[in-house]
Amino acid sequence: MTLWFILLMFGGFWLILSMVEFLADLDELLLNPSQGNVLFSIFFFFVAKSSAETIEGVLRDRSQKHYFSSPLNSSSIFYSKLLRVWFYNLLLFGIAMSVVSFVVGIWNIELPIDSRFLILLYTLMVLAPLVGFNISVISHVKNRWLKKINLVVAGQMITLTAIILHSRLSSFYQVGYIVLMLVSSLIIAVFLNAPLYEEVWTTTSQNTESSTLHRRGLKLPNFISKPTRLIAEIEFKRRWRRRQVPASLAVVTMMGFGLIFIYSSLGPRPDLGLGLGKYFYPSLIAMTAFLAAVIHTLIPSLNLFSRDGVRLWSIRTLPSEMKKIAAGKALAIILTSPIIILMIALPLPLILDYPLSFVVFSVFSSSVFIFLMSGIGLWAAAKFPNFNESTKGSPDIITMYSMIMLAMISSLIFLTVPFTLIEIDRILAVFSVILAADISALLMIALYRRSSTILEDMELNF
Amino acid sequence: MIEIKDLRKSYGDFEALKGIDFSLGEGEIYSLLGSNGAGKTTLIKILTGLLRPSSGTAKIDGRSARHNKKIRSRFGYMPEHPDLYEKLTGEEFLHMMGSLKGVDEDILCQKIEGFSQDLEITGHIHKEMGGYSKGMKQKILFMNAVLNDPPNLILDEPTNSLDPRFSQNIKSRIKELASRGKCILMSTHITPVAEDVADKVGIIERGRLVAEGTVNELKRKTGSDNLEQVFIEVVNHA
After folding, report:
1. Distance between CA A393 and CA A329 in Å, rounded?
2. A15: pLDDT confidence band, cut at 50, 70 and 90?
């Protein structure tokens, strides 16, 4: 395992370096005119991330009942949670910046960014978690009017940030505006949200415990075996109610719109100055589809069994074959994966008016990602489970990293031949990618069967 | 029928079970009594196939439940901790479990409705289980164990979180099930529960079955007035 991890780590590191080198070599056209876009995208990503973390990890955290039943006042708990979200996001940003600086230093890459970009980036990063945290808190306030007014204010602040970053104002004014926004957010946090925190937490955490009535959800066709169908329906329902499915669908949809946005900014054939123009969009589609498959398929698969944790006794004592149960779990993930094809693999090739053979190629390449990630995720879920209830079954960082690298390497193995052939013979390339999709589907079946054997044999001593 | 023969389970140097033997047949209620950590739950988990024995056998109707899906329809299991899927409603959970245990759709709906009325959870059965009290979860677990009317029942601390009224209700149900020929293995550390329902009692202490017999036999042997005294006497001398 250690050797395997070291190999994967070096492999992954090499791939990241190659990607950064490639990006850094791109013509300035790709980076310079859109520095504002890049800044806003990073800012928005961190706002969304901290907002989601606040809802999932803070507002729905029922263990805070211990704090609320202690002599601590609501505001102190609010500030400690705000600092937690702030600190973790800044830490993540710090790590990301260290990696980038290391890579830039080692390879002596000259990134087309100036001090203005860096000042704005650092200021925005201090601001983003704060904005995200506050948005989540105000969006859960009971009073409807207060909620609406606050959300309008937050929306305006974000829109203004986008406009200011796009504008040609000097960095002094831009930084000034952002600092002003930071102060406003702090005022909102201190005077408005902190006193309301207990009420917000009570409402949100009780909603999680839920007293909602539910109607029947997804119904799958009867030709699927009963255990697989029932487990898939139930798993899908649980993931939907935990908002994992809608959140993941939203992310993939946003990635799809991001591709179209890049196309609308750079045009149909961006001149990269290296004669690589025709590879730009195919590479971008492939990378985006890969990332979408990681987010939508691999990561949710990784905690499919460990999220059940102490509840696994229920499926282990059922008189059903474990491979049918594992298939049901896999089906619940794969069911929504066509969104990757619909939002990423199809739109851009159609907009760019690529030949039909390339459209088919794009669809099947994405299918390879989906099948591989689902299989690898499910196998790893059984092989390296993390039954720590406090992490909600998420695998440890080494396992997650190793599996992403494994997915990357296996995707390269499966797609190298089709990607080479598309330059030589398109029809042959389409056949080869269909074959690769078939083999990856078979591999997925083999891997989930293996995971069912591991699950069947697992000792459940908790 | 449940049969345990020379059952041992070790975790490294620690021996959780040190060679347990007992059996019970149709219509019999066998209560396993023991201090916390004595090995009751380990034994039950081996019997249900959730754990692998180090040596010896634990069989239900002549077969081990481990890697045997057929035998799993011949027992109902109620775990000690009420760990349930919080994002499912009680009805959805029972419906899934019942369907996968092969209960006919119409009968299943009737059973869920009947049980929830009897156990007074009709108002909650369509709500997510994350909001249930421990007692309500316990009732769902009991309903799940008996849904497909299996010939054997394995109940780990069945009355743990229940109030006296429902504890009484569950005890009378256990007796009624035994009178219909069900073989029931029940673990508990609440001695009055065992005294009320058990035909036979086995006392486990530090992985060993240190005493076994009917309640009256054990009282006679130890010269005690009730099962609680029997238990203290046996455990102190073990």
Report:
1. 15
2. very low
Q: Is the distance from CB of B175 to CB of B198 less than 8 angstroms? A: no
Interchain contact A320–B (C-beta under 8 A): yes
Rg (CA), chain B: 18
The alpha carbon of A399 is separated from its chain's Cα centroid by a whole number of angstroms, namely: 17
pLDDT digits (tens, 9 = 90+) for A373-393: 999 999 999 998 888 776 677
Cα separation, A383 vs A1, in Å, equals: 12
Q: What is the pTM of this model?
A: 0.73
pLDDT tens-digit series, residues B112-133: 999 898 888 888 898 889 888 8
Does residue B18 sit in helix, strand or coil? strand
Chain B CB contacts of A212 below 8 Å:
127-128
Residue A170 pLDDT grade (very low, low, confident, very high; cuts 50, 70, 90) = low
Tokens linked to A311? 């509840």
Cα gap B103→B101, rounded to integer Å:
6
Q: Within an 8 Å CB–CB cutoff, is residue B51 touching chain A?
A: yes
Q: Give this complex's ipTM.
A: 0.90
Phi and psi at residue B184, to the nearest 5°: -120, 120
Cβ-based contacts of A456 with chain B (< 8 Å):
67
Quick one: which of A416, A433, A423, A260 has its CA closest to A350?
A260
Note whether A382 and A308 are within 8 A (CB). Answer: no
Phi, psi (degrees; rounded to nearest 5) at B67: 60, 30
Q: Which residue has the tokens 């492999």?
A: A11
Query: Nearest CA of chain A to the CA of B213: how many Å?
Result: 29
Closest partner residue to B69 among A210, A238, A320, by Cβ? Answer: A320
Out of A308, A316, A318, the one facing B50 most closely (by C-beta) is A316
Rg (CA), chain A: 24
Q: What chain A residue is nearest to B65 in terms of C-alpha separation?
A: A317
Q: What is the DSSP string of B100-116?
A: HTT--HHHHHHHHHHHH
Q: What is the pLDDT of residue A374?
A: 93
Q: Compute the distance between CA of residue B108 and CA of residue B85 in angstroms, rounded to an integer.
A: 19
Per-residue pLDDT of A16-49, as tens digits, reads: 454 455 445 444 434 444 677 777 778 888 888 8
Instruction: Tell me the three-class secondary structure of B21-63, residue by residue.
Output: EEEECCCCEEEEEECCCCCHHHHHHHHCCCCCCCEEEEEECCE
> What is the nearest CA distance from A206 to chain B, expressed in angstroms?
8
Contact criterion met (CB below 8 Å) for B82 and B137? yes
Question: For residues A136 and A149, what is the distance between their CA atoms, to the nearest angstrom?
Answer: 14
Query: Number of C-alpha atoms within 13 angstroms, CB side, residue B24?
Result: 25
As a whole number of angstroms, the distance between CA A403 and CA A401 comes to 5
* B225 Cα distance to chain centroid: 26
Q: Closest residue of A to B48, CA-based?
A: A317
How far apart are alpha carbons A26 and A22 in whole angstroms?
A: 7
